[in-house]
Amino acid sequence: MKKVMVIVPFPMGKEDLSRRQAQMKAVDLGPGIEFHYRAVRVGPKNYSSQHDMVLADFSIVDAGLDAEKEGFDAVCIDTMSDSGMAMLRSVLTIPVIAPGRHSMLVAQMLGDKFSILMMWDRWKMLYTKTLGELGMEHKCASMRSIDVTPDNKSLLSGKEDQVFPLLLEAAQKCVKEDGAQVLILGSTTMHEAHSWLSERIGVPVINPGPLTYKLASIALDLKLTHSKATWPTPLVPKHDMIRAIGAAGAAYLEGNQ
Amino acid sequence: MTRILVIVPFALDAEGVRNREAQSRYVPLPADWELTYRPVTCGPTSFMSPHDWGLMDLAIFEAGCNAEAEGFDAVCIDTMSDSGMVMLRSVLSIPVIGAGKASMLYALTLGGKFSVLAQWEPALPRYRKAIREYGFDRQCASVRSFDQPPDFSNLLGGKEDKVFPRMRDVAMRCIEEDGAEVICLGSTTMHQAGEYLAANLPVPVVNPGPLTYKLVETFLALGLRHGRDVYPAPVEPRLDMLHAMMKAGAAAENAAKG
Asked: What is the 3-class SS of A35-62, one letter each residue?
């Protein structure tokens, strides 16, 4: 049995974690593979500024640092910011799949230009960073926001009537005005809107979380993992220091609850 | 039962098709999958000039244009040229995957820059054209050839000792001199060298044919397919005419062979 660790980017309890796990239902993963969700123990309150992004990178590398040693065969990162991906790829040899980079590349297998639908403008910096790293700014038709503050724990539940039509309206603008041929949901936390939206919009819509699960599965079947020429191993790994920093952050959060 | 049509870009005989079929052994495929390898009715004998590319588009389009009505769930095109892909997407709503664009994009999931290992010098212009058209100039470190005339039926069979080390040496130049972080095999006909190169190179090696099978698996599992807005259906399809044309082409080829 292959084991995949899914790193959830905010500290959370069981009930909130189950809303993340519900992404599994959107994809047929076949037998022989299981997914274990692990929430980070430290991190920012949300992803709204560069202050948050550096904490996010750290929190995810802290959560996945020992994935290989713990017997996992691959790691998926449950955030479109791809936080922690580069750091984890430098310390792990198992596949580390993050939805931002992967959904932008897979979108181009289905069409040429894609747009990204986001909850609020604060997320724009997440995609700009990945587009810059890929050198594919010219492939992104637009990024459109519905200007609704995201809730990274309860996700969209209870807000369907308000949020879904706004998403459809923004999606239509991406297609008709901006020339998008494929749409990408700007966050794995938007997965609850995926099937509703894809039934109505007429272009492919990428649900980034489930995509990473399937890509983890096929990377294992193809015996392919990331290139160490791109993400080189550190000369002096500081794993113990990372664990100590993570533990101190977790203790701080617990003390302030 | 999930039925996949794999279009083989040359009018090969049974043995030539078997050499292509061997690609499916490199990866585990879902138990209920059936792969049907179908050679084109007629077409060019090589890939080296615009004459060949135009005919190849027509040949692959004809071979796959009824795939959906025939009950197939997806189409893989067994060539890095992606010949026929966009035409097939305009008449089919099932996933259609060519090995070229998809393997370059997949390479970029594994590293920042890729090089394409080409069979011989005459093949280089086609790769350069595709890379420019896809807008991947910045992501492509180089295209280099290992200078071996292609055999589209026997592939690399019988030439392993001579050719595999040369492929490795050229790939090492891509890595050390050009900055490649991932190597894409430039043709699905190189599949026999994939495992050797993966074991003897310090970066990942993408074997394009088997990759297309796994990408089809991914798209079927997620319910994803190309958008028909990008590949709109023809106002007046002439698929019957297309079949008649290629049948006549095949007859002319047979007559020429005597």
From this structure: EEEEECCCCCCCCCCHHHHHHHHHHHHH
* Structure tokens given for A31: 């037998």
Q: Which of residues 183-242 of B touch A (CB under 8 A)?
A: 198, 202-204, 206-207, 210-211, 214-215, 217-230
Q: Tell me which residue in B97, B110, B214 faces A218 most closely, judged by beta carbons.
A: B214
How is residue B76 annotated by DSSP? E
**How many Å separate Cα A228 from the centre of its chain?**
22
Say what the ipTM of the complex is: 0.83
The radius of gyration of chain B's CA atoms, rounded to the nearest angstrom, is 18
- Please list the residue range(s) of chain B that carry CATH number 3.40.50.12500: 2-99+211-257, 100-207
Which pLDDT tens digit goes with each residue over B217-240? 999 999 999 988 888 899 889 999
Architecture of the structural domain at B100-207: 3-Layer(aba) Sandwich (3.40)
pLDDT, greater one: B232 or B50 = B232
DSSP letter at B25 equals G
CATH class of B2-99+211-257: alpha beta
